[in-house]
Description:
The chain has about 70 residues and is α+β, with helices and mostly antiparallel strands.
Amino acid sequence: xxxxxxAAGADVVKRADLLEVLGYEQNEYGHKRLETLVYRIRRxxxxxEFFPLITHHGYGYSFSMDLILRKTC
Length: 73
């Protein structure tokens, strides 16, 4: 869901919108869960030379290039 929200075409996705889509609470704990999710995604992507996720501190997240999602299942 995180990537789907970012791939929707908005330049920057607000933290509040991501919290809502992910079902996290709009409080300190929800924000911490979102930060943890981003940290884990970045940690898994360390094997990639470039990972296009950009943090807009205090506002939200965006990708620096187009994102193509593939369905799995």
